[in-house]
Amino acid sequence: MLEKLRKFFRTPDDDTPEFARIVRTILTITLIGNAGVLVLVSGILGSAVRIGTIVALGILFLLIVL
Predict the structure, then answer these.
(1) Tens-digit pLDDT profile for residues 28-51
(2) Which residue ranges make up each domain of the chain?
(3) Are the C-beta atoms of residues 47 and 39 closer than 8 Å to each other?
(4) Is 9 exposed, middle or buried (0-12, 13-18, 19+ CB in 10 A)?
(5) What angle do CA 13, 65, 25 make, to 5 degrees?
């Protein structure tokens, strides 16, 4: 998983266009930010189940994207 993240952010792929890499990075940062906000809101509401679901969905999405 860490190796995938390192490759994703640091190593330029020859077959991946620069624009696609930039868009993918922006989408990943946006997803992580949105998940953080949702977890924070869920924490304020006091729903541990919702936090777990959001975190699990975020991790699943990252695994699919990467």
Answers:
(1) 777 777 777 777 666 666 666 666
(2) 26-66
(3) no
(4) exposed
(5) 60
